[in-house]
Amino acid sequence: MTKFKTTLIALATAVPALAFAGPSQTTLTPYMKTALVDVCKAAMSNKIHRLNSTTKSYHLKDKTIALKVMCNGEDIISFAENHGANKTAAKLQKSIGNVSIIDTAAATKLSVTFAE
Questions:
Q1: What is d(CA 63, CA 10) in angstroms, rounded to the nearest whole number?
Q2: CA distance to 40, 51, 111, per residue, from 27 (Å)
């Protein structure tokens, strides 16, 4: 019976620790995933009017997108620049303004991966 108690105590302490040790990832609803994919595609298009209409249709702010959205593992500004979309990247960069300190632990980024 002592071995059973020891095993039970070990499991009771290990399970909560493992729950917090796993990767923290937000579960995306289908609507959120569609919105993020559309925003990433609009940023990649290098068309300011397309980015504006997409963000407006989903009621999103440029600053929120610039700081919190990741596309295919990259922040959205780098993603746009890597796809030659300098106009949309500049618009998103301008929305941030002059930022010198970013608390990466507090800023949760939403990431989406899609096929081009």
A1: 46
A2: 18, 24, 10
**Are 112 and 28 within 8 A, CB to CB?**
yes
3-state secondary structure at position 30: helix
Nearest C-alpha neighbor of 67 from the set 77, 52, 58: 77
Q: Which helix (H) or strand (E) holds 35?
A: helix 30-45
| Beta bridge pairs of residue 110 | 69
Whether pTM > 0.70 for this model: the answer is no
Task: Tell me if 80 sits within 8 A of 92, measured CB to CB.
Answer: yes
The residues of the chain scoring below 50 in pLDDT are 8, 11, 15, 17-22, 24
